[in-house]
Amino acid sequence: MSKVSYIFLLCLCFLSLGLCNGGELRKNFYRLSCPQAEQIVRDITRKNVATNAALPAKLLRMHFHDCFVRGCDGSVLIDSTANNTAAEKDAIPNRSLAGFDVIDEIKTQLEKTCPGKVSCADIVALSARDSVLVQKSMWDVVTGRRDGRVSLFSNVAGNLPSPFSDFATLLKVFSSKGLDINDLVALSGAHTIGVSHCGAFSRRLFNFTGKGDADPSLDPNYAAFLKTQCPNPANPDTTVGLDPNSTLTFDTHYFTAVNQNQGLLQTDAALLTDPTSARIVTEFQSQAAFFEQFGKSMVKMGGIEVLVGEEGEIRKNCRVVN
Ligand code: HEM
Ligand SMILES: *[C@@H]1O[C@H](CO)[C@@H](O)[C@H](O)[C@H]1NC(C)=O
Ligand SMILES: *[C@@H]1O[C@H](CO)[C@@H](O)[C@H](O)[C@H]1NC(C)=O
Ligand SMILES: *[C@@H]1O[C@H](CO)[C@@H](O)[C@H](O)[C@H]1NC(C)=O
Ligand SMILES: CC(=O)N[C@H]1CO[C@H](CO)[C@@H](O)[C@@H]1O
Known about the structure:
This protein is an all-alpha fold. It is 41% helix and 2% strand. The chain folds into 2 domains: 26-155, Peroxidase, domain 1 (Orthogonal Bundle); 167-301, Peroxidase, domain 2, CATH 1.10.420. It binds protoporphyrin IX containing FE and 2-acetamido-2-deoxy-beta-D-glucopyranose (4 copies). One 2-acetamido-2-deoxy-beta-D-glucopyranose is lined by residues 207, 210, 212.
């Protein structure tokens, strides 16, 4: 590369601000300060997954929510207090987040082993990776994130995409985080595990276009099945698998389902409404293609607007700022 184009790229990098912050993270950040850190996270995560098969979906989604709101700074973990009665956690899209107890268990052990060294934001990033059980780790988590001191309900709207977004909106939200169309489709593939409450999609089932019908882009048999699970009005506690026939396995089945008009959320279905995105959905029916891009996209997502160096703090308790 010529010197000029190198400098140009460097400038581009600084200009795009938050988008390049992930570059300051590195592999094995805790090699000297807490050599056991990654092993402790992995052991406690795996121990909990062994008795709770629903946990990987919770931890993966927690990392997504953390990164999209104020960057991957652990702000999603902070509890509301008398002084800040509306932390991120209490915003509506967060309602069904879970797994906070596992993060606490990991943090407690890390504070015993190497006090004040390992950030909550890194714990979230590592445990998201370690919870997803495939033959081998799908990506290397770079570490060195610092914890934020702010968590606000009011930061959630606009940063986390709503499940009713159309394709253009999804792409816009992802672009604003430095993520492209490949990242959008690959990361949506996280919906190959986990569940959704009826409220996130039931409007697709009843009177969708005002003619008493279901969303015409939804497979009619699947819509009929969903109506049996989520009658109108639905029980607010009922959940349905995001990937109809394989909720617990991290595989490519989500893309098969989306391609057969069995994407559960409007945003899953929306991936077929753009030709490029639709082509990528088809490509990701290959496991090698999906896993490779998912790993890359998770690393990119894990670098969104991170705090590094002397920024932020290392929280002692992930639920409260020091
Ligand atoms: C593309 C935009 C996205 C939208 C609109 C979206 C929306 C949703 C909604 C509404 C639910 C159901 C929540 C509930 O009712 O309990 C959900 C679940 C989930 N999301 Fe997403 N999501 C998106 C992207 C992502 C990304 C990027 C990831 C992770 C990389 C992710 C991981 C998950 C997981 C694993 C679940 C299942 C959670 C569980 O089983 O408790 N999602 N998502
Ligand atoms: C709440 O805010 C007040 C005034 O800023 C401060 O004096 C007090 O220590 C805070 N309480 C907590 C629990 O942070
Ligand atoms: C369906 O939507 C239309 C248009 O908004 C409305 O006039 C009609 O009353 C709705 N039907 C039902 C059963 O809610
Ligand atoms: C899921 O299973 C049902 C019943 O076996 C089948 O009709 C449906 O097509 C399957 N969906 C997908 C996406 O494979
Ligand atoms: C507004 C809202 O539903 N907030 C919920 C967010 O999640 C926490 C923890 O699960 C609930 O206690 C809140 O009620």
